[in-house]
Amino acid sequence: SFDLQKNKIQAQQKKKMVKSSTSSENEACCSKSCKKDIDSLNSKITELTDKLGERENMLFHYKAGLARVEARLAKHRNQEVKYCKKIRVLEFKTESRANCIESLTKELELIMKEKEGLDSKLAGFQTASKDLDNLLESRRSDKNKEGL
């Protein structure tokens, strides 16, 4: 905005210099074709000054837009870093839980095998207990028969 004002002031000063060269004092010494050329050059200067102002305005808006885009890009990059950190934490938690599940599954398998072994021992003890009960019962009945 400062540059834009500076350029406008310079353009106005150029116009004044050109106008002063075409003032009534100098008119007597200039021919009509010279005056035409000066007028043509003055109009071209005015036209180019206007175009320069438009271009500077466009450049200003472009730079402002670029600054906004760069700010948004910086914000998105910052967010990307935060999301990457969160993703790494979640991946670690997932891996940790998977390892925990695997460990618990192995422990469960061992406990199930141990249970199967204990179940077979229990079945053996129950069979032995029934056999002992039958043996004791048969001895009692033998003693009862002898006692008669």
UniProtKB/TrEMBL annotation:
- Which residue ranges does the record annotate as region Disordered? 1-27
> Per the database entry, which stretches of residues form a coiled coil?
31-58
State the source organism's domain of life: Eukaryota
Annotated keywords: Coiled coil
Q: What is this protein called?
A: Uncharacterized protein
Tell me what organism the protein belongs to: Tanacetum cinerariifolium
